[in-house]
Amino acid sequence: xxxxxxxxxxxxxxxxxxxxxxxxxxxxxxxxxxxxxxxxxxxxxxxxxxxxxxxxxxxxxxxxxxxxxxxxxxxxxxxxxxxxxxxxxxxxxxxxxxxxxxxxxxxxxxxxxxxxxxxxxxxxxxxxxxxxxxxxxxxxxxxxxxxxxxxxxxxxxxxxxxxxxxxxxxxxxxx
Length: 175
Fold this sequence. Notes:
Belongs to the MEMO1 family. This protein is α+β, with helices and mostly antiparallel strands. Helices cover 42% and strands 11% of the residues. It has 2 domains: 70 residues, no CATH class; 96 residues, no CATH class.
């Protein structure tokens, strides 16, 4: 039995009538009168309830050409459990971060398009370490997922913790 989450803000931030909501959204987009552009990659729009900011937001969203969708990778069930695939991709990134190689991390992000929260500060940190006179070793100490995705309708966020320590040669550790 598939469950659908109830729209908690329907009737307050926007109408709880689906037909009326469609009419409002379409009306605001038509009134904006913008030409959709395949060149648009992002918009900045208010995200208060539609009843408050829908008209203004339509001027941002009206630029988006819905036929020019972002790229995605199709998930084939033969790849195993979704949450395991997510973990494998995350751990690959974690291993690359542990190498301290900013170029390898950049290549990983470009190749796999994993949306790692904090990827920009991590990249800056790795670049800084590359030029640091003190040898630093990064080690991940914990990995978790907010939920284990079992279907394409599920969602999950991954969390990881690491520590960056001065890399002490084995001989010094004995003293």
